[in-house]
Amino acid sequence: MTRNIYILLLILFTSLGSLAQVGNAQGQMQIKGSVKGKENYAPISGVRVSTDKGAFTTTNALGEFIIRASIGDILMVESPELETVRYRIKSGEDVDVLVEGYYGGVSKKQKRESISSRSSLADHQRFLDSANAYKKTDLEKSIDFIARSMESLGSSGNKNEFSASLRTLGEIYMFHEQYDLAITNFKDALAAQESNKTKILLGRAYVLNKNYESAISILEPLVTVRNMVPYQRIELFEALGDANKELGKLKDAQGYYQQGLVIAEKNQISPKEIDLNSKIADVFASEDRVIEAEGFYQNSLSLSKEVAPERLIQESEKVADFYNQKSRYDDEIQLRKRNLDELKQMPRSSVASRAQGINTRDTITSQRINYKIANAYIAQDKLEEAIPYLEKSIVEADKDDDLVVQKDATRKLSEVYGYKGDYGKALESYQDYVAVVDSLYVRKEQEISRAARFNREIANTQNRISSLEQERELSQSKYSLAVTEQQLYEETSKRQKWIIYSLIFGIALMALTAFLYYRSNRQQKLANNLLALKSLRTQMNPHFIFNALNSVNNYIAKSDERSANRFLSEFSVLMRSVLENSEEDFIPLAKELELLELYIKLEHSRFSDKFDYEIDVDKKIDVDAFQIPPMLLQPYIENAIWHGLRYKEEKGSLKIKVRQITEDMLEICIEDDGIGRKMSAELKTANQKKQKSKGMGNIKKRIQILNDMYKNKVDVSIADLNSDQTGTRVSLKLKKQ
């Protein structure tokens, strides 16, 4: 059955800014996770988890894994029973892999219950998505979806999902400036499940609610938290800066803003670079450090040009307000006029939009800008220049039904006419002002009525949510009561249990004695194995030397002094390396291959008319990563040359191939097309058979002892190369230590 894998990312911050930039972070961290059945959360053990940088591990009996990786690495989850999943690591949060259709041997009833649980989780997420969709447009619907998401979990719902519902509800209240309710729900979310994201949101809500000390107390401990995604850390420093600024701790505020700005610049998070440059400028402006303030304001303006026109106008208006505070009216007027030109080039729908969740209609509407330009002219006693801008402000405010700006501009126009002595127009404007005030009063009454009705609806919905929380708490109380009853039962049976504990202690003592006896035997066995290995190596070295000296003797017998000298020179190099490695259980495979090539070269110089040889090592193999017992392959190669190829009438070949089977295992093949084992055995003398028995017997004993000590690290098999029993193939499989 095909199994589809779904990855649930338990990442606290998923805002687009952080996800776009977090891959740039450096440094390794421990990534924790699990692989479980989606229907019943049954753990799946033995699943391979690796990264594209080479780190790998497998899941334990609980389906859990820990792997070292960096942000931006590709995480791969593989198993013969599952489809391979690849996922780019975006933060240090846990990664859970849920496998659909895996039940782990549970009953049908449990399967039905797990399917029901899966359905409730899907409903919960769907309701949360709906709540976020209506977050900005319909508060009542949004809150109702939150309540339904909590109902879908039941009274004993998952803590993580329950906390997510409360956190989302808090975000909805915070967006609609219901800060007390937002704080309450963030606290409830933290009580259900600890979360850095929720703590930062709670801190921001405290700042907006002007409870700055509480904000600092909840946010400051998070500064030392590691593995926080960049965007999340920027928001933390920004919120701390806001709180300290409002408390008058301007140096602390500036320090936090600067830390956030460094992270924003490093990860190229442009919106936050603009925000933090602007806020640092505000701090300098508060300290009357005009040059520094203007420098950071110019930074925010430069960055805003690369983002969006609305953001540029928003920042320009902020700088214009700064000029107004410093009585630099000409600079203010010039900048606001430029903003008016920018507004004319923008669609009207963009003017009234909300940029990044902040209501910008008060700062970037043309009627508001015209009104501020007029005020700047009035501050300079340039009344004639102010009048056209006031009139434009009134017309545009009337067109957009902006009664607040229309009221202020009409009143200001009446005052200007009064200053000029044109009392007729002043009276006319004042009458218009009174009419606007009346309209505004009627609208305010309607808004108050709607707000009262709206508050009642919020209260009802909040009561519904509170009842769901109480049901959950009641369920937990029942569980606690059951635990207490169990404890009372255990207390009454305490006298009986001490007997059982005594028996268990006796059994444990016997088990400990048996374990110590077993460990002592095992240590003795290890010592015996080490002694046996040393003895076998001691036997093999003279055997190898004896065979090599026979070769030298043959050259001397033929009076080939030059070849004998060359052979002895190369043989001395080989012997030096063999003796250096004689005390080691394992040496690098690369070193063993070098020794083998030197040995084969020596034998080929003697039997060049009998065989050619080839050593083929796959270039993809990291031979330095594998270890092999020294002189393990040489006896097999010696047998191939002396007992297989030497007796062949035509010229033969010897091939040594090294191939990778798995990431942890190599296969080394020694192939010769000699006369074969059967014919070789028929040709051997009694003395040769005896020597073979010693040489190959020692090899078998060494492999047996090494496998016993190192858990089946080496496996050797010998077979005929051809169907007519000619040729021989030796296959040696070698595992990593």
- Which descriptor suits the 3D outline? elongated
What value does the Rg take, in angstroms?
Answer: 41 Å
The portion of residues assigned to helices is 55-70%
Lateral strand order in the biggest sheet: 12-14-15-17-16
Mean pLDDT: 78
How many DSSP H or I helices?
25
Biggest pleated-sheet summary: 5 strands, mixed
Which secondary-structure class do the elements indicate?
Answer: alpha+beta
- The total beta strand count reads 17
The low-confidence runs, each spanning 5 or more residues with pLDDT under 50, are 1-26, 105-110, 351-362, 535-540
What percent strand?
Answer: 5-15%
Q: Whole-Å distance between the termini?
A: 36 Å
Keywords summarizing the entry:
25 helices; 737 residues; elongated; disordered N terminus; 5-stranded mixed beta sheet; alpha+beta; 64% helix; 13% strand; single chain; 4-stranded mixed beta sheet
What does this structure look like?
The model is unreliable at about 1-25, about 105-110, about 350-360 and about 535-540 (pLDDT under 50). The protein has 25 helices and 17 strands. The strands form 5 sheets. A 5-stranded mixed sheet has the order 12-14-15-17-16. The protein is about 65% helix and about 15% strand. With about 725 residues, it is α+β, with helices and mostly antiparallel strands. GO terms for molecular function: kinase activity.
Indicate the topology.
Blueprint: E1 5-9, H1 16-21, E2 28-37, E3 48-51, E4 56-58, E5 64-70, E6 74-79, E7 82-88, E8 95-99, H2 108-133, H3 139-153, H4 159-175, H5 179-192, H6 196-208, H7 212-219, H8 230-246, H9 250-266, H10 270-286, H11 290-304, H12 309-325, H13 329-344, H14 348-351, E9 354-355, E10 358-359, H15 361-364, H16 366-379, H17 383-399, H18 403-420, H19 423-492, H20 494-557, H21 561-580, E11 587-588, H22 589-606, E12 611-617, E13 627-628, H23 634-645, E14 652-662, E15 665-672, H24 677-683, H25 686-710, E16 714-720, E17 728-735
Parallel strand pairs: 2-8, 12-14
Antiparallel strand pairs: 1-8, 2-5, 3-4, 3-6, 6-7, 9-10, 11-13, 14-15, 15-17, 16-17
Helix pairs in contact: 2-3, 2-4, 3-4, 3-19, 4-5, 5-6, 6-7, 6-8, 7-8, 8-9, 8-10, 9-10, 10-11, 11-12, 12-13, 13-16, 16-17, 16-18, 17-18, 18-19, 20-21, 20-25, 21-22, 22-23
